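[job 4417] fold queue: 2 targets
>>> target A
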Amino acid sequence: MSILARIRRRTVAALAVAASVLALVAAPAAAQFIDVPNPLVQQRADTAIYKHTDGYYYMTASVPDYKRVEVRRSQTLEGLATATPVTALTAPSTGNLSGWIWAPDIQYVDGAWYLYFSASPSTSQFAQRLYWMRNTSADPTTGTWTAPARVTTGWESFQLDPASFTVNGTRYFTWAQDSPSTSYNSHMYLARMTSPTTIDTASAIEIARPTYSWEMEGVAGVVEGPSPLVRNGKVFIAYSASATDSRYKLGLLSASASANLLDPASWTKKSTPVFQTANGVYGPGHGSFTVAEDGVTDMLIFHARDYATPTPDALTDPNRHTRAQQLYWSDTGDPFFGQPIANGTRQPGIRGQYSDKCVDDYEWNRADGALVRLYTCSSNSVQKWEFTYVNGYYRIKNLYAGKCLDNLGGATANNSDVGLWTCNGGSNQDWSVQDRGNGWFSLRNRTSGLCLDNYEWNAANGARLSMYACNGTGAQLWRRG
């Protein structure tokens, strides 16, 4: 870049930042420009966040001393960080719930709120069993919770991580439990619910056990923390595997929503992890799914640490923090988790694997036809992009320009231009996410069938971007952040 060009870029950038500040004062940014601080909530793990029809988010999670169940609420995800937690249950000094309380889930079912969790006696803290409580108040941070009662699974052994979901009018209950038939730490199970508090134990099936080496790191074998999500005609259950340190990670089960979910053959387990340690975020795991404030953008909720080695050990180190980031959908209709977003990154950019530079409205240009290029990643609005999922494709809008990533001219030839154009819903602006493994993705244009490409393998600022036949090489690999 010439000296004049550098001066121009810096001057335009300064003016643009000032204009952006004024614009933000005048009107809030679109909700789909995901802007969530990470970590979101300090020292809360196994987090469940439920967005209710009243417009509020309701959150519960494991607390560091494992001695209570709390609920908080906020109209925004970010507001959960400062929302006042209300205690729904405190562990008694003696009895079956006097030990540890783990991994609560919160659901609204048939006009009442339910908390599901596991607890143990202080005399045998790993003798975890499942419990439920009910609150009929419209706001579960008020009202009264019933006394804890058992959820009976059909056999007695270590059990934890309850969750429930509904498919085609039937409510299911899923959880992790030790099986007497193996030496693994836990398997995962699924059963039909006969009420919000009971399951048909005769219907219970095993849906997963540790079978891959990445599910057995640091432990005999762990699959736990089932987190269900129903989308695109499928049922997905994300789960956590391996020891709860930097080796903790997410795997994925899936089944057709029209299949018999109580037939083990209906379920398929992905052979590789879908989400794991990266970018200074260690041991991402057990959480839940919700939607952003716009009501449609899917969000992944999980916990992780900011360092690799917990002290004094993984169970008692208190610094597993709740985090939130956008969940994407691949061209196969499956969820694409990507990589954990680094601390302090809000509204993440699109970063290239080969260049380690970000996709940029290079000249701060709002005109139709402005080319996008690569530039050192920053927090500037010219590098912030809204991903909106529509009918299997993403519309990718630049925050500064307010225009969409476009196959300029509807070209189909290799090395065709990619730039910005007024968002119009045309196929030139439709991009599918292709999962390339380890949290990297390619962006394939609907019109051309070609992928966004660093055509000259150029890592310099100002490197031109174009489209090229999809090949999965580093010039076509991207991540958010």
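>>> target B
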Amino acid sequence: MNVKEVVTEEQLHEVLPVLQQLRTKLSKEETSSLFRNMKEENYKLFSLRNEEDEVVSLAGVAICTNFYNKKHVFVYDLVTADAHRSKGHGNVLLSYIENWGKENGCESIVLTSAFARIDAHRFYEREGYDKVSYSFHKEL
């Protein structure tokens, strides 16, 4: 297993099919535009690749600081390709992100997960994450 940061637009397009398994409504063009803006805001996208160099899992993260969580890693996107689920890849990539956060002086790792993603909730709880709040959303 090998973790690589996705930096270029070409690399982004290579991992896009896996990202679209989580973010199903994103087009290639919109993804490229958003990625350019997100990188300016400290977003990083990491891919986990298997021995055949296939992208099996992705994590989109940023280091943030606020009064509640102090300096922390926020996980915006975490997805394992359908064909590679339940093989421990999510655990490997999440562990990498946790270590990366520690190396960068973060105190915690934070994420949100939609109500319907019951399997994801079980995964996070198995990994030692606690449910601590609801997330609210309003279109502007």
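[job 4417] complete. Note on B: The chain has a mean pLDDT of 96.
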